[in-house]
Design a protein that fits this description.
heterodimer; A: alpha/beta; Rossmann fold; 2 domains; 6-stranded mixed beta sheet; two-stranded antiparallel sheet; 12 strands; globular; B: alpha+beta; Immunoglobulin-like; 4 domains; 5-stranded mixed beta sheet
Chain lengths: ~290, ~675
C-alpha cells in the first residue's frame, strides 16, 4: 500500500489492522465480495422462499416445495457481495468549534473518516467521500484503489470549515449519486432539524442503504462550559445571544441529552446505527460498534 | 392631610437611585465566545427571561422602594400639625448680630445663644409657615421682601450668620420694616416679630420702646447679665490734625471702663501700647472703675510725607474687639489753604501773610471752588454761601470767616442756626475798641509773649461787627472787645466753634489797612499760623463707620483703574468696583486697616475702628420679654400639636420590602422544563 498522507498515522493503521469494516447489517454491492447481501445470491446460504413471478429464473424454483405445496416458489440464497461505503463528512462552520476537546470537531471527524476509508479500502471494498456543508462541496466517487484512498485522505487532510449546516439538503442533493443500496456513514454534529434529517434519510433507507450516524460533539457543547456573562456568537449565522452559562447549564445539558436520546430513538426506529462521541474521547470504540 | 417634612435635605431621595446605579455600574461586560450553534441557547434564554425578567424587575423595584423608604424616613415626614390658622403662621426673626453679641456673657457667647434660639424657632415651624430673617449689624438686611415658606433657606442663612463687629445703623427702622411686613401678610396668616437680642441699652432701648406696644412683637433676651465689665479704647486724637513732617504732635488715647453686673471699686491698672511704624511705646495708667481716662503720647511725625498709622492697644478682656484702635494721620509737607474774596484787595495783608507762610500752599480764588483744602479763609461770605460752608465743615475743613463788616448775612445762620443779618459799626468818635484775650490758656496764644500780645491788643479796631446776640452755644471766644459803655456783654473778636468734623473761626476784625489798624500789624500772622496748625485736633470720628460705610477712593491722576487694589492688613484682597473716577469697595468696611494700592505703591491707608457705642455692654430687659428657655419649648409644642410622624411607618415599609426581597431571592432562578429528566 502506498504511503498514506499524514492524517492517517502509523499507529492508527496499526491499531485498525485488527478491525474489519463490517457494518452489522449486511452490505449489498454489485460486485461479488466478502460481505453478505440480503438479496438473492449464489452462495450456499439459504435465505428464504418467495413466490414465483413471471420473469424469474426457472432454475431457482424449488420443485420439492412445489410437490408438497403445489405452489411455485423460488428458493433464494444469500450471496457474497462487495461493500460500498459512502462517507458524508460535515464541513460546516459549526464543525470548526473547539472548546474543551483537544481538537476541533472537524479534525476529529476527518480523522475518523480517514480511518474508515482506510479500513474500507483495506477490505478491498469501495469507498466514496462527500464533504458538505449546505451543499456537497467535494465528492469522490466510489473506488477501492490506493490512489483513490490517497485522494480521499488528501481531501480529509486539510478541510476548511465554512457554510451552514444543511445536512438534509446535502443528503437530498447527494441522493442522485447513490443508485443502489450502500452503506452511508454520516459524520456530523447533527445540529440541525431532526425531522428534516429523518425525511432526507428516508429515501436512502427505502433504497436499502445502511445508515450510520456518527455524531461528533465537543465536551463544551454538551455541558456549556464557561462562567460569567458571555455573549455567544453563532459560528454559522453570526447570531448573538447574551446569557450567563451558569444559569443555563443545567437546562442546556438536559436539552442536549434529550436531543441525543431523540436521535438515538429515531435511529433505532429506522434501523440506523447512531454513534455519539465527543472530541475528548478516542474514536476506536466506534469501530468496535461498527464491527459488531 | 398634607405631608410635611422636618428635614429639608431633599437630596437624600437620590438614594432611591442607588439600586439602579449599582445595577449600571456593576454590570459586567460579557465575554464574547464563538459557539457552534446558538439555536438551543436562544430558546433557553427566551424561556429563562420569560421567568427571570419579571423577577429581576421585581427585585429592582423592591430595592428602589427599600432605599426610598429609608431615605424618606430621614426626611422626618409627618402628617398635619403646626397651622394655627387657615393660612398658617408668619414669623419675622429680627436677629441682633451687632458687635455686642460677640461678648462672652456667662458661659456662652451671646450670638451662639441667639442662633440656637432662632434655629429652634424656625425648625419647629410647619412647612407651609412663612418666615423671614432680618439682621441688624450695619444696615438692616432682610433675606426676603416678605415672609416666605422657605425654612431651609432661612436655616442655611442662620448657619452662616455671625456676629459682625459693627453697630446697628437703624434698629428702629428695621423693626418698623418688620412690622410693616406683618401688616402686608394675607388674610388668615398669623404673624409675629421675634426680636432676639442682648438688648444693649445704648443701641436698642429707643427702638424697642417704639415697638413694645405692638401685640405681635415678642422679645427674647440672650443677655445673661445686666452688664458686662469692659475696658475700651474709645478715641484717639492727634493735635495737630495734619502734622508737618518732623513736627512734634500729641496723641491722646481715651479709655473707658464700664462696670459689670457686680461693680468694682478703686483703680484699674492698665497699660496702653502705642505702635507707630517701627516705634512702640507703652505707658501704664490707672483708670477709675466705671470711669474714663486718657493717656498722652508725645511723638514726632515722620520725616516723609504720607499716611501715618497709629495703633493704640490695651490688655485684652472678655470683649476684645474694642481694645484696639487705629488712627491714620496724613503727614504732608504743605497744607492747602484757599483764600476766597470777591476782590483780592479785601484780604489785604492777610493774604500776603498767608502766601508767605512756608507750610501753606495758598491759592486766591474769587469764587467758591470745588476742590477741597485744609484751611479756607473766606472773606465776607453771603447767605447763599452757607450750604457750601457747611458742606466743607462737615468734610472736616477749617474755615476762617472774615465777615462783611457792613452787613453780614452768614454768621447768624452758621453760628446760631437762624436767619438774620448783622450790621457792622464804625467807631466815629476817634477812639477804637480794645481787644482782650479772653482765653489766655488756649494753645492759640502759645507762641506769643505777653508783651507782644499786649501791644497787639492795644492797637485797637475802628470797625467791627455788632454781633449781638451772635455768640452761639459751644463757641469759644478766644478774644473779645472790651465792653464799651452801655454794653451788657462783651463782643467777641475771635470765635472758634466746632462744626461737624471741621472748625469754624470768626475773625471779627477788619484785615485791610483802611478799616483797621490790625491790617498793618504783622502780629496776627503767628496768631493765625498757630491757630491754623493747632485749631483742629484729629479724631477718629471722621473714619468710616464699621458695617455701614463702604471704603472709597478718588482715583488719582496717572493711576490706571485696573492697577487699583484694596488690601486688608492681613493681605486679603477686598473686591472693588470702579465707577466714574472713583473706586469703591463692594463690602461694608469692617474694623481693621486697609491699603489702597496701585501696583505695589500704597496710595492711601484707611483705618476702620470698632464702633464705640458697642463697647457699652449694659443691657435692659424689655417688658413682657419671653424667657429664653421658653421659646423653643413654646414653638415646639405649638408646631408638634396634632402631628403624626411617618418615619416609623417608612422604616417598617423598608423592613417589609427587605423581607420580600429575601423571599424573592430564595426562589430558584431555574425552573425544570418539560424535557428535563425526572
Amino acid at each position: 500500500m502506498a504511503q498514506a498522507p499524514s492524517i492517517l498515522r502509523p499507529e492508527d493503521m496499526t491499531r485498525l489492522a485488527n478491525y474489519r469494516f463490517a457494518v452489522r447489517m449486511m452490505a449489498e454491492g454489485w460486485l461479488s465480495g466478502r460481505h453478505r447481501a440480503r438479496g438473492r445470491g449464489s452462495s450456499s446460504d439459504f435465505l428464504e422462499y418467495r413466490a414465483y413471478a413471471p420473469g424469474d429464473d426457472p432454475r431457482l424454483i424449488d420443485w420439492r416445495a412445489f410437490a408438497r405445496t403445489d405452489r411455485l416458489q423460488l428458493r433464494t440464497f444469500e450471496h457474497e457481495t462487495h461493500l460500498e461505503c459512502h462517507l458524508f463528512v460535515d464541513c460546516s462552520a459549526s464543525m470548526d468549534f473547539r472548546d474543551r476537546g483537544p481538537v476541533s470537531k472537524l479534525a476529529y471527524a476527518c480523522h475518523f473518516a480517514a480511518c474508515v476509508a482506510w479500513l474500507v479500502v483495506r477490505g478491498k471494498d469501495r469507498v466514496s467521500l462527500q464533504l458538505f456543508d449546505e451543499q456537497v462541496r467535494d465528492y469522490l466517487p466510489p473506488g477501492s484503489a490506493t490512489t483513490h484512498l490517497n485522494r480521499c485522505l488528501s481531501l480529509l487532510e486539510n478541510p476548511i470549515a465554512g457554510g451552514r449546516t444543511e445536512l438534509p439538503q446535502a443528503l437530498e442533493r447527494a441522493r442522485g449519486l447513490v443508485r443502489h443500496p450502500v452503506t452511508l456513514v454520516i459524520v456530523s454534529d447533527f445540529l440541525c432539524d431532526l425531522a428534516a434529517l429523518q425525511a432526507a434519510l428516508n429515501s436512502y433507507l427505502h433504497l436499502g442503504c445502511k445508515v450510520v450516524l456518527v455524531q461528533v460533539l465537543d465536551p463544551g457543547e454538551l455541558s456549556l462550559s464557561g462562567q460569567g456573562l458571555a455573549r455567544f456568537v453563532d459560528m454559522e449565522s453570526g447570531e448573538r445571544v447574551t446569557c450567563n452559562p451558569d444559569e443555563l447549564r443545567r437546562t442546556y445539558t438536559e436539552r442536549m441529552v434529550a436531543m441525543q436520546q431523540r436521535m438515538h430513538a429515531m435511529a433505532a426506529a429506522r434501523g440506523m446505527l447512531y454513534l455519539p462521541t465527543t472530541t475528548d474521547r478516542s474514536f476506536y470504540p466506534l469501530f468496535d460498534a461498527l464491527a459488531k | 392631610m398634607i405631608i410635611s417634612f422636618d428635614n429639608p435635605a431633599w437630596w437624600l431621595m437620590c438614594a432611591a437611585l442607588v439600586p439602579l446605579l449599582v445595577h449600571l455600574v456593576a454590570r459586567t461586560r460579557p465575554v464574547v465566545r464563538r459557539f457552534s450553534s446558538v439555536v438551543l441557547l436562544r430558546e433557553l434564554v427566551r424561556l429563562q427571561s420569560r421567568h427571570a425578567r419579571p423577577r429581576d424587575w421585581l427585585l429592582l423595584v423592591l430595592r428602589t422602594l427599600l432605599c426610598a423608604s429609608v431615605a424618606g424616613a430621614f426626611l422626618l415626614p409627618y402628617l398635619g400639625g403646626g397651622a394655627d390658622g387657615e393660612g398658617g403662621r408668619a414669623l419675622l426673626l429680627v436677629l441682633d448680630n451687632t458687635a455686642s453679641m460677640a461678648a462672652a456673657d456667662g458661659q456662652q457667647v451671646r450670638m451662639n445663644r441667639a442662633l440656637s434660639v432662632a434655629q429652634s424657632a424656625v425648625q419647629n415651624l410647619a412647612t407651609h409657615d412663612r418666615v423671614n430673617l432680618v439682621t441688624l449689624a450695619g444696615y438692616p438686611r432682610f433675606v426676603f421682601d416678605r415672609p416666605e415658606s422657605a425654612r431651609p433657606l432661612i436655616l442655611r442663612e442662620l448657619s452662616r450668620t455671625v456676629s459682625q463687629p459693627a453697630a446697628a445703623a437703624d434698629a428702629a427702622a428695621a423693626l418698623d420694616s418688620a412690622l410693616a411686613q406683618l401688616r402686608d401678610l394675607p388674610d388668615g396668616v398669623q404673624g409675629q416679630v421675634l426680636l432676639i437680642s442682648d438688648f444693649q441699652s445704648s443701641t436698642m432701648q429707643q427702638a424697642v420702646e417704639k415697638c413694645r406696644e405692638h401685640e405681635a412683637f415678642c422679645c427674647v433676651s440672650v443677655a445673661q447679665t445686666a452688664a458686662v465689665e469692659n475696658t475700651a479704647v474709645t478715641a484717639m486724637a492727634l493735635a495737630p490734625a495734619r502734622p508737618l513732617p518732623g513736627q512734634t504732635v500729641t496723641l491722646t488715647v481715651s479709655l473707658q471702663h464700664r462696670q459689670g453686673a457686680v461693680p468694682r471699686k478703686g483703680k484699674l491698672p492698665l497699660s496702653v501700647t502705642l505702635s507707630a511704624g517701627n516705634l512702640r511705646l507703652s505707658q501704664p495708667c490707672e483708670l477709675d472703675c466705671g470711669g474714663q481716662g486718657s493717656v498722652q503720647f508725645e511723638l514726632t511725625a515722620p520725616q516723609q510725607p504720607g499716611d501715618w498709622l497709629l495703633t493704640a492697644q490695651t490688655e485684652s478682656d472678655a470683649y476684645p474687639g474694642d481694645n484696639t484702635r487705629y488712627l491714620v494721620v496724613p503727614v504732608a509737607d504743605k497744607l492747602d489753604c484757599l483764600a476766597i474774596a470777591a476782590d483780592r484787595a479785601q484780604l489785604g495783608f492777610m493774604l500776603r501773610a498767608l502766601e508767605n507762610t512756608p507750610f501753606l500752599r495758598t491759592l486766591y480764588l474769587p469764587s467758591v471752588p470745588e476742590t477741597a483744602a485744609d484751611f479756607v479763609v473766606w472773606h465776607a461770605p453771603k447767605a447763599a454761601d452757607i450750604p457750601a460752608i457747611r458742606e466743607r465743615l462737615t468734610a472736616g475743613e477749617c474755615i476762617l470767616i472774615v465777615p462783611d463788616m457792613v452787613k453780614d448775612t452768614a454768621l447768624l445762620p452758621l453760628l446760631c442756626n437762624r436767619e438774620g443779618a448783622l450790621a457792622g459799626e464804625v467807631r466815629t468818635d476817634g477812639g477804637n475798641w480794645q481787644v482782650n484775650i479772653s482765653a489766655p490758656d488756649s494753645p492759640a496764644f502759645a507762641l506769643f509773649s505777653p508783651d507782644s500780645l499786649r501791644t497787639w491788643a492795644q492797637a485797637g479796631v475802628y470797625r467791627r461787627l455788632c454781633p449781638e446776640p451772635a455768640v452761639a452755644d459751644g463757641a469759644v471766644t478766644l478774644m473779645e472787645y472790651a465792653p464799651a459803655e452801655g454794653e451788657t456783654r462783651p463782643v467777641p473778636a475771635l470765635l472758634r466753634k466746632q462744626v461737624g468734623r471741621g472748625q469754624l473761626l470768626v475773625w471779627n476784625m477788619p484785615v485791610t489797612a483802611r478799616d483797621c489798624r490790625q491790617g498793618f500789624s504783622p502780629l496776627y500772622l503767628p496768631l493765625l499760623a498757630e491757630q491754623l496748625l493747632h485749631s483742629r485736633a484729629s479724631t477718629d470720628d471722621t473714619e468710616p463707620i464699621a458695617g455701614q460705610d463702604f471704603l472709597q477712593l478718588d482715583i488719582p491722576a496717572g493711576v490706571a483703574a485696573t492697577d487699583l487694589r484694596l488690601q486688608a492688613a492681613d493681605g486679603t484682597e477686598c473686591p472693588i468696583v470702579v465707577q466714574g473716577g472713583m473706586a469703591r469697595c463692594e463690602q461694608a468696611a469692617m474694623p481693621g486697616v486697609y491699603h489702597w494700592l496701585a501696583g505695589e505703591n500704597v496710595l492711601r491707608t484707611v483705618a476702620v475702628n470698632f464702633p464705640s457705642r458697642e463697647s457699652d455692654l449694659r443691657s435692659f430687659t424689655p417688658e413682657g420679654s419671653t424667657y429664653l428657655l421658653d421659646v423653643p419649648h413654646a414653638v415646639q409644642s405649638r408646631a408638634f400639636a396634632g402631628r403624626v410622624a411617618l418615619w416609623p411607618a417608612l422604616l417598617g415599609m423598608a423592613l417589609l420590602f427587605y423581607v420580600i426581597e429575601l423571599l424573592v431571592c430564595r426562589v430558584p432562578r431555574e425552573r425544570k422544563t418539560a424535557n428535563s429528566p425526572s
